[in-house]
Amino acid sequence: MISVKRYVNNPILIPTKENPWESYAVFNASVAKKDGIYHMLYRAISQRQQWQDAHIHVSSIGHATSEDGLNFDNRNQFILPEYDWERYGCEDPRVVFIDGVYVIFYTAISTNPPSKEGIRVGVAITKDFLAIEEKHLVTPFNAKAMVLFPEKINGKYTVLVTADTDDPPAKIAMAQFDKLSDLWEKSYWEDWYANISKYTLPIERRSNDQVEVGLAPIKTEKGWVMVYSYIQNYFSQNKVFGIEALLLDLNNPFSIIAKTNGPFMVPKDYAEMYGTIPNIIFPSGGVIEGDNLRVYYGASDTAVCVADLSVSNLVTDMLSNEKQIAIESVNSLIHLTRFEGNPLLSPLKEHKWEEKAVLNAGIYSDGKTVSILYRAMDDAYVSTLGMATTKDGFHIQERLENPVYAPRRDFEKNKSGGSAGCEDPRITQIGDKIYMHYTSFDGKIPKVTHTEISVADFLARKWNWEEPYVISNPAVMDKNSVIFPEKVNGKFVVLHRLDVRIWIDFFDDFAEFKKGRYLEGKVLCSPRPDMWDNEKIGSAGPPIKTDFGWLLLYHGISQQDQKYRLGILILDLNDPTKILLRLNYPILEPKMHYENVGVRPGAVFSCGSAILEDRLFVYYGAGDLTLCVAQIKYSELLSRLKELIKAPASA
């Protein structure tokens, strides 16, 4: 297997608020070295701004310099949208020095939102990175990621380009020219595209994968090394971004001599797994010095990272068909699959009590119908609870006109006006009662509050909820309380979040909390340094009993990007203070647009789930604005978790 050494101080380039044009993200860098100076070109994204006729993040191309290829400064905006064919953005540069000039290919965006017709390749030429001599639209068809070979082959300029990136399947193909100006000759490209199959390199292993050109080819004695992006499961939500390589014949680069047997890099380090779009590594630039290839790659579409590897070892591994990172291992992570019809519920302007947001829902299911008790907010940020139902887990069958639960006591009302109410319910049935814990808020301190109702009244929609009472210390913030669905060793068990940790408490009867007792107990688990849940954690819905332990979904927040994600814990059946398994990675994270907008962008927050016909449906608030659902086949989830409990090192 190829040995890859990531730079210990990754990422080497991150966004900076000092420059508005690169304050949101910087990634996908290409580097050219000349006269001892490393010139980096990189994609830079601004915060949302008014641009042309749209309010968008704008991509441009930055330039920075370095004397060691690792520490870059002198950052400036170098290529920005000027012409109609690039009016909405310039992305993902690739630079090569040839014939005394730097040729810079980049993705030019001409439509908003981006469409396949509006995503094409542009080129800029400079002699010194001080000024751009000329710019042209290159491809008249959908394409990205074009690179120029660093020298002519048989007297011809040669490029690799990724065609049809946004009209899959994408194709990595080759084109050759007599002179540089032929690169932007429209008639040439129209003829070439009509016969694209003749120029396409056979790279994809499966029809549901995607490929894209990475860095400019590197000349070795054995052939041209071309490093590229290979994305497995591209058409699913469980994409796996990997970096692979080809060896092309020196004199006939249309001929593939060898290729890596799978990816030699997949997302692994923190910067690669968490960011604007998590779990992405994308190779975009490289510098060869002796036998060392330094690969520059985008990490989570947020930052620039580097890794070093031996070119000779890479070539040897390709020629010997040495197996790289096993495809099975990178595809075996547990992930929830979102419903394509998300969101299930959105605010309704005609209902004042839910006109601002609908989110985090407690769930009750009788195995046939799922009742969704969701948090609703009005324009004053006062929270009540509404209800909707579904029979198949996905499609809403009924949505009630009025709240089913509203603030009644002073500890859930704000006398000064503003944010208050009943938030984030969790529901547990034990016997003929439905218990509900929720966060009551009076504008000062969030508190865990208890109420209950008979199953008969709930099903008959007679909202005879017991008078609520606070069960946490009213002087201390406490939230995210869930009740186990049965007693353990004769006692009720509750999880709750004090400070930044999940606590567990045992007691004989809820009546104890009417006599001065407060939730406390002992710490069950804490945030983990250098992981996705390193700031604070809290329970999602009530644990689910399995034959090997209590299955608990929980949320965690990252210090780095402040986003919420969902993870899994398995607790011992007879002693739930013991953790049998804690996954190292999240099973759901905010990737979709509707999860990254709203009252609290970047949040996926669950308060409950339901099992219907061997599917676990996890309901979650997205951006504190809408209610969504994601699911997984329950039997397969249990099977995988059993395996991981036996071999926890692979979790």
Write up this protein:
The protein is mostly beta strands and 651 residues long. It folds into two domains: 5-330, Tachylectin-2, Chain A (5 Propeller), CATH 2.115.10.20; 337-650, Tachylectin-2, Chain A (5 Propeller), CATH 2.115.10. The chain is built from six helices and 43 strands. The strands form ten sheets. Strands 24, 25, 26, 27, 28, 29, 30 and 31 form an eight-stranded mixed beta sheet that branches. Strands 15, 16, 17, 18 and 19 form a five-stranded antiparallel beta sheet that branches. Strands 36, 37, 38, 39 and 40 form a five-stranded antiparallel beta sheet that branches. The longest helix is centred in the C-terminal third of the chain and has 13 residues, at 634-646.
Helix content: under 10%
- Could you say how many structural domains there are in total? 2
Low-confidence stretches: 327-331
Question: Treating each run of at least 4 consecutive H or I residues as one helix, how many helices?
Answer: 6
Q: What number is the mean pLDDT? A: 94
Proportion in β-strands: 35-45%
| Strand segment count | 43
- CATH-wise, what's the superfamily of the largest domain? Glycosyl hydrolase domain, family 43
CATH topology of the largest domain: Tachylectin-2, Chain A
Please describe the biggest sheet, giving its number of strands, its sense, and whether it closes into a barrel.
8 strands, mixed
Overall geometry comes to elongated
CATH architecture of the largest domain: 5 Propeller
At the first level of CATH, the class of the largest domain is: Mainly Beta
| Ends distance | 22 Å
Secondary structure category: mainly beta
Radius of gyration: 28 Å
